[in-house]
Design goal:
Blueprint: H1 2-7, H2 13-22, H3 45-52, H4 58-69, H5 86-89, H6 102-142, E1 156-163, H7 169-178, H8 187-194, E2 204-210, H9 214-222, E3 230-233, H10 240-251, H11 255-261, E4 283-286, H12 292-309, H13 317-330, H14 336-348, H15 356-363, H16 375-379, H17 402-409, E5 418-423, E6 428-432, H18 435-451
Antiparallel strand pairs: 1-2, 3-4, 5-6
Helix pairs in contact: 7-8, 8-9, 10-11, 13-14, 13-17, 14-17
């Protein structure tokens, strides 16, 4: 701004430079001198002090001798015609002041040490973690440590291994180890995984040997000759008449033994005219020497367990099993709750159930493999036919599973009175509140059956 320019006195920069050069010391000519004791190397501090006329301490002389003994590879410093530049700023300046402060150097070393220790500590901790986590695998890969499997050919003695219902590779592997068959608990399971073996384990007691390899143990479990106990099954929705012969054949017992075993429900504490519905659908295993009565008693007891789990009062067991047996025969699992509601809604208004499964059971055609009932079955006056009689059939018509029993106790909420499966392949079912809607569903079913003549309509 103009006001500030006028307030500041002007100075001649050339005058200031002139003052600087006028104050410089007078130049002195530097001539080389000869010292018999030592000759200062060009550019050394000693040479600088000699040029200034400063007396030399003995220590400097000693240092100059040492410096003279070492050849210098540096070029001589050209002298200023006006004297030494260091005299301009400080007459006696020690170049040690130009060195970095020692404190900072120590601090830098300390930081570096901390970083190194942190890295080393991290690596050590990581190594400990890796060994604790993967030590067994590392040892196995590198061939260290004890082998996990027995050597082939050293199997001896006898070991009994029990495989339970639903056992898969891991629990079987544990059972083999606990019986003394395999050397370690995981070797059998690891063998199945490593070899990508797909195997189904059947419940039973198997006779194997001790100190078998995992491969040999698997072969023994697959050999039917090593199985000591027998397995029988009751199918979901199965009936007594359709199951007894199979049980007899599997266990090697006369079928007459089973017919006699189911003849008296009271022997098992069941207050009904038949044990139908009381033989729970599952796979059972029995020790050698089992009797037909033992088998039936085990199945009845399993049904009681299911009823208790569903919260069924003992006095209501027969009614719930009867409803559950119809649900089991009439619907897919996803629709159990809705079918249960249809049954309950009809019972509430004294409407005939009109379930084909009940008519077929009473007529003896339940296992013919067709959905629709014959005219004869629908008209037969047997006490199970709900097309003829109101209310529930006199006994259950099949063996219901846990889901069907639970659905009988807890129907899904809804107004439905009718249902019809309109696609037998997918099980798609239409539930309706009115008869007109139901007729539309029946028409869909007939259309589907025409398009699929071999589907069992």
């Amino acid at each position: 701004m103009p006001e500030r320019d006028s307030a500041s006195p002007r100075r001649d920069p050339d005058a200031r430079l002139g003052d600087l050069f006028e104050n410089l010391p007078a130049p002195t000519q530097q001539l080389p001198t000869v010292d018999n004791n030592s000759a200062p190397s060009p550019g050394s501090r000693r040479a600088a002090r000699q040029a200034a006329g400063t007396p030399q301490p003995d220590a400097d002389a000693d240092q100059s001798v040492a410096a003279a003994e070492v050849p210098s590879t540096s070029a001589p410093i050209a002298e200023s015609p006006s004297g030494r530049l260091e005299d301009l700023f400080q007459a006696d300046h020690d170049d040690s002041d130009l060195r970095p402060p020692k404190k900072k150097r120590r601090r830098g070393c300390l930081v570096a040490l901390v970083v190194v220790l942190a890295i080393v500590g991290g690596l050590a901790a990581g190594g400990v973690w890796a060994w604790n986590t993967y030590g067994d695998k590392i040892s196995e890969t590198l061939g260290w440590g004890e082998p996990k499997d027995w050597e082939p050919g050293i199997a001896t003695g006898e070991a009994l291994v029990t495989i339970r219902e639903g056992d898969t590779g891991r629990p079987v592997s544990t059972a083999l180890h606990e019986a003394g068959v395999t050397k370690t608990e995981d070797v059998f399971y690891d063998y199945l995984i490593d070899e990508a073996v797909a195997v189904t384990f059947y419940p039973g007691v198997y006779k194997l040997q001790k100190k078998m390899t995992a491969e040999a143990a698997l072969a023994a479990l697959r050999d039917e000759g090593n199985k000591l106990e027998n397995t029988v099954g009751m199918a979901e929705g199965g009936t007594i008449a359709a199951s007894l012969q199979s049980m007899a054949d599997t266990l090697g017992l006369p079928v007459e033994d089973f017919e006699a075993a189911v003849a008296d429900p009271a022997a098992y504490g069941v207050s009904a005219q038949s044990l139908e519905g009381w033989l729970f659908p599952a796979i059972y295993t029995f020790d050698p020497g089992v009797t037909a009565t033992d088998v039936i008693a085990r199945m009845v007891e399993r049904t009681r367990e299911s009823l208790a789990t569903a919260g069924v009062p003992e006095a209501d067991a027969q009614r719930v099993l009867t409803i559950a047996s119809i649900i089991q025969r009439e619907a897919r699992t996803a629709d159990f709750g809705k079918v249960s509601r249809v049954i309950q809604n009809r019972l509430d208004i004294d409407m005939k159930l009109q379930m084909d499964s009940t008519a077929q059971y009473g007529y003896g055609s339940l296992h013919e493999g067709v959905v629709s009932s014959s005219a004869e079955a629908l008209a037969d006056p047997n006490p199970w036919n709900t097309y003829v009689h109101e209310g529930l059939p006199v006994t259950p018509i099949a063996s219901p599973n846990d889901a069907a029993i639970a659905a009988a106790m807890h129907p899904e909420e809804g107004p439905w009175l009718y249902f019809v499966t309109i696609d037998l392949h997918t099980g798609e079912t239409q539930f309706s509140e009115t008869y007109e809607e139901h007729q539309q569903g029946i028409e869909k079913w007939r259309t589907w059956c025409k398009a699929n003549p071999d589907a069992g309509c």
